[in-house]
Write a structure and sequence with these properties.
With 472 residues, this protein is mainly α. It is built from 19 helices and no strands. It folds into three domains: 242 residues, no CATH class; 128 residues, no CATH class; 78 residues, no CATH class.
């Protein structure tokens, strides 16, 4: 998919597609600006710089340089803790940041937010809002001033739009927003779908991009489209809908990327998570119309379960030495992994959580799945998290913790409570969505205690609360 030629000149609907997003960006900038103080960080020279394509014309102001290094050294690794530096380069990132466009502003906002969190300053948020406001305004101006229907594959504008959009999503997630990420993800996903659906068109030699630029643009897209896919798949719990992106094709036999090298979890498990979301929507649509085919549902469910169990069978467990157990107790079916140990652990945790989610979904439509099966699935996730506790932070497990924790029985619930408390008591406790995850778990547990005859899960609890967290 990533190697497919992109020709936006044949997309007459792209401009119409982005119109609502432009309006949202304008509204967001106006809303933030009401609370924005006079600039205290950026010099006048920064405010006079133009849009993307104009690299830094002079040395960075010292405060900006400090934030830039903080982003590269701390925030990027925080966002993508499993980024495989041995396989992937970050040259494209420095290239994009040096273009001094909206991505640069958004990244500085992320850095300021993270730095404030480390310092424990709960109220001093004007710096990140200042950068964030400039990023939103700049991107809005960027979209308005350029005819997006005239973009060509070699035009770096497309790369800047996608990368900045993802940075805006990250900003909303890191500051704990439960809804503001949705317009950005919807717009980015729609653009990516239209890119995917474009046929490969022959180009004359003089139309081909130079190898140097092709490398920069391809590297940036090769990183951000998988990240976008990751977000789209994990957003399904909040949206209660099937994935927007063609995940089954992107993660198929011709896939050119491995999510484990970016986000920690293997492609096969992420495909299973997408399959469960698709099955859930198919089940809901059928039940609403009164046409639900239980036999077909069971066939689809069994296929997903078999694929996820296969991953569990073939992915090594975390080293059990630190837990006082001999690693020789690992099943012999486990083969030497091509992933790092922490990637294997994340893969197993997500796979186990997906199996618990699948069991709960099946219990809603079939009496063949007992509550004991769901309970055992939750216990399995708890064991996997315990085994990986020395390698994996709960911050990297928002999705499995929230999905599985909502299914936990009363005697299992304290494990998830303590797990999240350990994170929220840290200096960076106010950054990210761990606090939101804990609120969702507590609300779900209360609902289950007060309404035991109803089936509560992560998605239904979010809907009740009006809190739609992106669990990344």
């Amino acid at each position: 998919m990533l190697r497919k030629a992109i020709n936006l000149a044949t997309l007459p609907n792209v401009s119409a597609l982005l119109s609502p997003w432009r309006a949202i960006l304008t509204s967001s900038a106006n809303l933030i600006s009401r609370h924005e103080p006079s600039p205290v960080l950026t010099p006048q020279s920064l405010q006079s710089r133009v849009l993307s394509g104009q690299s830094f014309a002079e040395p960075l102001h010292y405060d900006e340089a400090t934030l830039l290094m903080h982003y590269l050294d701390h925030v990027f690794p925080y966002q993508y803790p499993f980024f495989d530096k041995a396989r992937l380069s970050r040259g494209w990132l420095l290239w994009l940041l040096s273009k001094n466009g909206p991505l640069y502003r958004a990244s500085m906002g992320l850095a300021a937010l993270h730095q404030r969190s480390l310092l424990g300053e709960k109220d001093n948020h004007h710096i990140e809002l200042e950068f964030h406001t400039k990023a939103v305004r700049q991107l809005q101006d960027f979209l308005v001033s350029i005819d997006i229907n005239e973009l060509r594959p070699e035009n770096e504008t497309l790369v800047e739009i996608i990368t900045c959009g993802i940075a805006l999503i990250s900003f909303e997630v890191l500051r704990g927003s439960a809804t503001d990420w949705q317009p950005h993800l919807s717009a980015m996903s729609s653009i990516a779908v239209m890119m995917h659906n474009q046929p490969s068109l022959p180009q004359s030699v003089d139309q081909l991009p130079t190898p140097l630029f092709e490398g920069k643009a391809t590297a940036a897209m090769a990183f951000h489209l998988p990240v976008l896919l990751w977000m789209d798949l994990l957003a399904c719990v909040a949206t209660r809908e099937a994935p927007k992106l063609p995940y089954d094709e992107w993660l198929g036999p011709n896939c050119t990327f491995q999510l484990a090298h970016i986000m920690g979890c293997h492609n096969s498990v992420m495909k299973g998570i997408g399959d469960i979301a698709t099955l859930s929507q198919w089940k809901s649509d059928g039940a609403e119309r009164g046409t639900l085919d239980l036999e077909n549902f069971q066939t689809k469910r069994q296929l997903i379960e078999d694929e996820l169990e296969s991953v569990m069978d073939t992915t090594p467990m975390a080293s059990m030495g630190s837990q006082g157990l001999s690693s020789r107790t690992q099943p012999s079916i486990h083969m030497k992994s091509e992933q790092r140990p922490e990637q294997d652990s994340v893969t197993r945790i997500f796979a186990a959580a997906a199996l618990a989610q699948l069991a709960a979904l099946t219990a809603k439509v079939s009496t063949d799945i007992s509550v004991t099966v769901v309970r055992r699935s939750v216990s399995r996730v708890i064991l996997e998290i315990k085994m990986a506790s020395q390698m994996i932070s709960p911050r990297q497990l928002s999705w499995p913790i929230c999905v599985t924790g909502c299914l936990a029985d009363p005697d299992q619930q304290p494990f998830f409570e303590v797990l999240l408390d350990s994170v929220l008591s840290e200096g960076t406790g106010m950054i990210g969505n761990c606090g939101t995850v804990r609120d969702i778990l507590r609300a779900c547990w209360t609902n289950k205690a007060q309404q035991p005859n109803q089936q509560w899960d992560c998605g239904s609890t979010m809907k009740q609360l009006g809190t739609y967290a992106l669990l990344i």
